[in-house]
Amino acid sequence: MTVASAIKARTPVPVRRALRRVERRVRPVTTAVTAPVRRHVLRTVIRDLTAQRPRIPTARQARRLAWGWDNPRAAANVDYVRAVAWLAGRSDGPILECGSGLTTVVLAVYASQPVVSLESDPGWHRRIRTLLDDIGLAADGLHLAPVEQHDGFEWYRVPSGLPERFALVVCDGPPGLGREGGRVGLLPVMHDRLTPGCLVLVDAHMQQAETFALTTWQDEYGLEPARRFGTALALRVPG
């Protein structure tokens, strides 16, 4: 048991509830105060990364990116952020990103090939596009792609005019779990557009929460683990 969990266990329930109420009231103020600082940090790190390419972000730079992004999950995904940068700079063909976020920024900095990013949430799509414009990065490849019903599962509605083939997939969406949603639809929908040897990068969350998708990809489409980047995993399309 950690010190924090031990303290929590000894704190009376009414006190914990009161603290949560205070936290909910304070959070908007804290966010408003720290937002400009976070944006400045994000801009600074991106400027430094752009100047030092093709080197990948250091662990410290990746953590600062995540802090500037203000996303707790991204902060826990330093390995994933660094893997995206490394693979994007070495991809020999177009790159598909499923789900937008901090990795969209990293791809905009490091990718040497065209990038297509699919985002299902309109509000999040606007936020990412505004942010990319604000920090001076290209947003042309970011597409609003609602999730729709396919053959027994839900996945993105694929926009027209995309590249014929992709050599790298950064797979962090769409949201959902199990047989009918989530990331499982990538291979059934896009398999014919993935080049032989295409790498599909997944994070630690997917490896733990979406085992059905990974099992389906491996059993039905022959994907095999190709390389680990700490907690991130790259799978290779056979061929």
From TrEMBL:
SUPFAM superfamilies: S-adenosyl-L-methionine-dependent methyltransferases. This is Uncharacterized protein. It comes from Cellulomonas chitinilytica.
